[in-house]
Amino acid sequence: MKPLYIIVIVCVLGWLAIQTFQSQRFDPNAVPRSIEARGDLAGDEQTTIEIFRNAAPSVVYITSIAVRRDFFSLNVYEIPQGTGSGFIWDKQGRVVTNYHVISDASRLEVTLADHSSWKAVMVGAAPDRDLAVLQINAPAGKLRPIAIGESGNLLVGQKVFAIGNPFGLDQTLTTGVVSALGREIKAVTGRTIHDVIQTDAAINPGNSGGPLLDSAGRLIGVNTAIYSPSGASSGIGFAVPVGEVNRVVPQIISKGRMIRPGLGITLANQRLTQELGLDGVMILKVASGSSAAKAGLQGARQVREGLVLGDIILAVNGKPVKDYDSLRDELERHEVGDSVTLTLLRDSANVEVQVQLEAMN
Question: Among 58, 85, 208, 233, which one carries the catalytic annotation?
């Protein structure tokens, strides 16, 4: 019988322990503890809050919708294809975003900060710069254009702020610094975008097309890409600089596309130049009345003795060019109407010719 007594004693002690614990756990006379005063927010916290409050109404949520046809019923239906961010450019309802956010959409919707949604149409795009402009018919009172800053005087280490809709979570703020300047990334067309801003502010899927702001709350770039094997932010994001945005967007609004500066020439196939063992870009034809014709540039021509090669462009303003893309990149650093100095190989001699850039069709 001794083991039975031991069991009873253990049970009684256990019951007493439970009662004691519960009497300590639940106190009918408990009252809330007094709250300690926090004091004022730190200066940098107040600045961040103010930046978000001022800029958030300018940031929009973009939904791209694709039309699909059912394989069996042949009925047409719409499905959400992707989401991204953008920002209000002006009181006329223009919205700027990345081209890759809306490139494959059949229909577009823009949701403002007040959660009202508006049908959007594309005004135009510059795929080589990964920029696009949309139009919505929202009342001017609902539209707050974003403040425009500058990117030419940015410094590595200065604070930046990104507002967007990562993973569909609207009006999200992330902070960081300018990590590097003068980076290069590839647009969806394969063309290189130069002078890109690198930041460690978290940029995730859905942030694309949203604004990158400086500590004054001004637009300094358009968040466009992340470097990440997993597809989520790894502390390396890229933004198209506002200097490029402020140059391209007005062209899209007025012409529906980016106006490219050109020379009025047709270039020979790069393979031909390589087979001849020559560097640079060969001019095949010069358009009559073009700026190139006025400057005396020469294309290939047939003579009695055979084919005479055209001028070969070796450099633009002293910067070497090796193919069509590098020539176009150098020309697009300038505006229509600017003059550039071309270094040409002509009749086995290097010559320099000044040419005024014209708008390409």
Answer: 208
